[in-house]
Amino acid sequence: MSDDLSLHFRTCPLCEATCGLEISHRNGQIVRIRGDREDVFSNGFICPKGSTLGKLDEDPDRLRTPLIKRDGRHVAATWDEAFELIDERLGPIIAAHGADAVAVYLGNPNVHSMSGALYTRGLLKVLRTRSVFSAATVDQMPKHVTSGHMFGHPDLIPVPDLDRTDYLLMLGANPLESNGSLATAPDWPGRMKAISSRGGKVVVVDPVSTKTAKAADEHLAIRPGTDALFLFALAHVLFEEDLVSLGRLDGHVAGLDDVAGAVLDFDPPSVADACGIPADTTVRIARELAASPSAAVYGRIGTHTTRFGTMASWMVDVLNVLTGNLDRPGGAMFPLAAHERPRSRRQFTTGRWVSRVSGLPEVRGELPVAALAEEIMEPGDGRIRALVTIAGNPILSTPDSDRLDEALAGLDFMVSLDVYLNETTRRADVVLPGTTPLRRSHYDFAFYQLAVRNVANYSPPLYDLPEGTLSEWEALLRLGGIVTGMGPHADTKTLDDMMFATMVGSAVADPASPVHGREPEEIMEGSRPEGGPERVLDFMLRLGPYGDAYGAMADGMSLATLETSPHGVDLGPLQSRFPSDLCTPSGSVELAPPALLDDVPRLREAMTGPIHDELLLVGRRDVRSNNSWMHNVDVLVKGKERCTLRINPADAARLGIVDGEVAKVSTEAGSVVAPVEITGDMMTGVVSLPHGWGHDMDGAAMSVASTRPGVNANRLSTGDLDPLSGNAVLNGIPVEVVPA
Ligand code: SF4
Predict the structure, then answer these.
(1) 715 CA to middle of ligand 1, Å?
(2) Torsion-angle region of residue 124: left (phi > 0), alpha (psi -120 to 50) or beta?
């Protein structure tokens, strides 16, 4: 072993910002982690979480061997014992009740991991269950729905062209705490500041005067859950004042008149009371949007996790179209990731199947996670009897937590793949240890599709896995072997080769693929010999828009290109992609999809309906936290209590709530008792709690988190949904608050 200090460069996988890290290490120990100043995208930016990446690996609570539950207690087991038990228990459930009796829950970390992105897809393919749930329905599903309807593909998501825009209208987002979401951009603070410095303007619409709102040029406080009304009113003004100008998409937009009709009733005075934003302010913002040389409207989680999440998401993109800012520099643009596959035109649909109990429609191949508990608990044919969770903690992160906890306790069998024995995996019969970020390779499949600049970066593992330990992708393949009847001991290389051969077969058969018509054997033989995620990534890069197409494009990209570029490859600013890359059957932007128009009457009712007298609960982000992750890292959770109930001074005085004391927050779903923080940052009538906390459940084994447990805000969510996307309502929940 060398005593010399070595440097390792990798992309931080802890949030969507994809910062480059420079890791100094010696003899298997991290000496220092700082931002990689040469990273082509992040230029040295780092947040407090990034510098703690090594702590996750060193954590004594991290699972290092599989666990099997015996007599109610988890005990260490070998990998073979774990897979044998899974085979013994899962196989008969599938045989007796069908694949739909086995549900899969995919947690948010899956989109931050190569094996999660590549190999869970393979598992779902062979399992063939329709009972798929994920964190997407407590987050961004409305955006997938509107992208599917408007642009033809649920993953064609426009992002604000932050580095060139003159005007950013941002709703329900707090990137100075979250580091950004559905808009991958390291250093949001710097990029926001640059907009103002070049003479532009940033307007933040949020019920809370967040860190982002304070850094903006203007903050508009809005009543939670009313973003769709405000956005409709902006569109109303554009039509009324003849400010609509489609710009470069003129001639490629269908449904303009239908949208004009849909927003007709939503004039600014009519929505002012509900939104809490004066009509003249709404008119002024609409005029500013239209007059700015370029502008981007961007809505995030606060707009999506509401009763009208899909309506809000739709109108964000409509406004970008109406002002001529969709798909143009400085507007809202579509990234072109190095691994992106050609997409064919097709009709986007939802509801190809529905949930058994409440008849909720499938969206993008999954059901709303808010329905998971009832699908397990309600007796009858088709009941979910087994659950596989992969890198997820739905008991903390999804609605009506107490009920879900009870449901998981009643499963016939549960298997989890995770780094910790957490509040959810404690319910599992078998827990397989996940792979920590420093022991796996990394390429951001999800976030390069959402990046505000086209970039690509690959990170090899820093550390090897200990002898005899399976990586996540191997564990997922072994699970796939079990559900396909190959038994618990199937050879991972054989399984991996089978999966890769299927991918190659599809590519050569696809007329849109650059290797269409070539011999599969030629592609197989020309691929990386080591197999695993590297072979798949290399394959995808070579078939991608910058790829070498297996020799057909001289100087094209492959994984070797990235391996020789430890600071990443800059593929340039975003380029206009429409109309050629539109996937709608019509080849136009569908501005007024019937499914969305049909929901407008429901929104209209909200405009005229009663305004809640109750307090409304919203969520909160913190730069030292990311959902329920990283709460077992002492350096991130120590210090001032972060899981507090924030409340406005006027509301606190009215209710007899005292700063620093505790208050009880209740809904019909449950109640929590949290320490109070009185702050003028909260809009009157609004309180906030962060999510991802509540680490005080028996059976979990996270020693640091359990000393700072916080409270689980999802005990308060009632299971309300946005009907078009199945997304849970987590913002704007009426609550009762009393001194505890
Ligand atoms: S901002 Fe996100 S990607 Fe960057 S260092 Fe922090 S956690 Fe990692």
Answers:
(1) 28
(2) alpha
What does the alpha-carbon distance between residue 275 and residue 234 come to, in Å, rounded to a whole number? Answer: 12
> At residue 611, does pLDDT exceed 90?
no
Number of Cβ within a 10 Å radius of residue 380: 7
Burial of 675 by CB count in 10 Å (0-12 exposed, 13-18 middle, 19+ buried)? Answer: middle
E-only strand ranges, 538-680: 569-573, 589-590, 615-618, 645-647, 662-666, 671-678
Is residue 464 within 8 Å of 439, Cβ to Cβ?
yes
How far apart are the C-alpha atoms of 144 and 140, rounded to whole Å?
Answer: 7
Give pLDDT, residue 544: 97
The pick from 9, 11, 15, 113 for probing ligand 1's pocket by mutation, whose C-beta has the most ligand atoms within 8 angstroms, reads 15
| φ, ψ dihedrals at 262, nearest 5° | -65, -35
Q: How many CB atoms lie within 10 A of CB 740?
A: 15
Task: Give residue 85 CA to ligand 1 midpoint distance, Å.
Answer: 38
Task: Name all residues whose Cβ lies below 6 A of ligand 1.
Answer: 12, 14-15, 17-19, 46-47, 49-50, 179, 186
- Which protein residue's CA is at the shortest distance from atom 4 of ligand 1? 19
Among candidates 242, 167, 157, 247, which has minimal Cα distance to 202? Answer: 167
pLDDT digits (tens, 9 = 90+) for 266-320: 999 999 999 999 999 999 999 999 999 999 999 999 999 999 999 999 999 999 9
Joined tokens for residue 277: 């934003």
The pick from 9, 11, 19 for probing ligand 1's pocket by mutation, whose C-beta has the most ligand atoms within 8 angstroms, reads 19
pLDDT in tens, 356-371: 999 999 999 999 999 9
Cα 506 from Cα 504, distance rounded (Å)? 5
Spatial separation of the C-alpha atoms in residues 10 and 567, rounded to whole Å: 8
Environment class of 531 (CB within 10 Å of its CB; exposed 0-12, middle 13-18, buried 19+): middle
Q: Averaged over 186-213, what is the pLDDT?
A: 98
- Determine the atom of ligand 1 nearest the C-alpha atom of 51: 5
What is the CA(11)–ligand 1 centre distance, in A?
9
DSSP letters spanning 711-728: --GGGS----B-TTT--B
Per-residue pLDDT of 540-569, as tens digits, reads 999 999 999 999 999 999 999 999 999 999
User: How far from chain centre, in Å, is Cα 527?
Assistant: 31
Distance from residue 43's CA to the centre of ligand 1 (Å): 12
CA 687 – CA 684 distance, rounded (Å): 8
Residue 491 CA to residue 548 CA, distance in Å, equals 31
Phi, psi values for residue 574, rounded to 5°: -65, 145
The two structure tokens encoding residue 565:
């570029």
Question: What six digits make up the tokens of 183?
Answer: 């808009």
Residue 340 sits at φ, ψ, to 5 deg, of -65, 135
In DSSP terms, 459 is beta-bridged to 442
**Amino acid at position 656, single letter:** G
First to last CA, the chain: 57
Contacts of 422 (CB under 8 A, 6+ apart): 393, 396, 628, 700, 702
- 607: confidence class by pLDDT, cuts 50, 70, 90: confident
At residue 534's C-alpha, the angle toward residues 344 and 571, to 5°, is 60
CA distance 695 to 714: 13
The whole-number average pLDDT for the span 373-385 is 96
| Contact call for residues 272 and 285 (beta carbons, < 8 A) | no
Centre of ligand 1 to C-alpha 426, Å, is: 28
Q: Are 675 and 632 in contact (CB under 8 A)?
A: no
* Residue 731 structure tokens: 């913002």
22 Cβ contact list (under 8 Å, min separation 6): 7, 8, 9, 33, 34, 35, 36, 37
